[in-house]
Amino acid sequence: MVKSNFSASAASECTGTQNNTPPAGWTEDGEFEWNEWYQGQVLSGYFYGYICTQIFGGWLETRLGGKIVCGTSQLLGGLFTLLTPVAARGGVYALLAIRILVGFVAGITYPTHHGMWGKWAPIYERSRLMSITMAGANFGTVVVLPLSGYLADTYGWESVFYVTGCIPILWFVFWVIFVYDSPSSHPRIDPEEAKYIESHIETREVKSPPVPWLKLIRCVPLWAIVIGHTCSNWGFYTMLTNLPTYLKQILGFDIKAQTREAWQTVFWIGAGIYVFGGLVVLVFLRTDVQDWAKDPEEEKGANADGLPSDMNIASDLKLDNSSTRTSTTRL
């Protein structure tokens, strides 16, 4: 929420400007007379901080545990969000600084999810649980954009930051009470459940080999993932940060005054973007494993029927108890 709240409220905070003399311009409505360049810098401030702490957040999680790292980052994000109206009245650079801080602590959050689910999620449930976790971020975006517009028009733009700043602080209270770093450290978990989880996760310590940087740089599939992910995020965050301003300043859209027909403009824009993306996926996406993604070692372990080595183990299972115990040991 602290990522998405600013874009909707910015349209209400700032006046429209048409000259190149910072930071003043002609007044339409809004409290602050910042031109488009300053507004763009403030909108980008979150990502200036966000990009710096992705790796750092993962490192912190391995040292301190996900509970304290994720909880503290969310608490600080809420506190910084509450300070946003004060910073805005202190000047554009004070506001930019507070948005960078919000992004800085938010960037720590995502890497901790992987570390915590690695200790809590059975290996065959991990993908689904991680997907649900990541979907929560998109759900928050869906909720906060219309909520921010309503709050800004009804109670003033400051209310956007007061509401979205209080939510993480309230969330932090429940986080401290109910969340623990691992099943073994949870005082209220059922012993059978803890035993089941710990028996279905990988806990072995593996010494990491040196990173083959030159091979990574020359790896075409890796660059395909990087480029695809970059383009996806660029489109998503461009729409997320600029759509409210575009709707108000270009289309003259007012959340309170417009009719159902006017609202259709918003839905058509959003639907068009995602329908186009879906068509591209349907045309070009392939779900079969490509040759470059196959593990040579697994290919060598295939049997005469073409089954990979892990399936060979399953085919060796016997119905009698002694054979079952032997096969379980092999698994």
TrEMBL record:
Keywords annotated in UniProt: Membrane, Transmembrane, Transmembrane helix
Residue ranges with Polar residues bias: 1-22
Compartment list: Membrane
Domain Major facilitator superfamily (MFS) profile: 1-331
InterPro entries found in the cross-reference section: MFS, MFS_dom, MFS_Na/Anion_cotransporter, MFS_trans_sf
One Pfam family named in its UniProt record: MFS_1
Keyword Transmembrane annotated: yes
Region (Disordered): 1-26
Residue stretches spanning the membrane: 90-108, 129-148, 160-180, 266-285
Domain of life, source organism: Eukaryota
Molecular function via GO: transmembrane transporter activity
Mode of membrane association: Multi-pass membrane protein
Annotated GO CC locations: membrane
Protein name (database record): Major facilitator superfamily (MFS) profile domain-containing protein
Organism from which the protein derives: Branchiostoma floridae
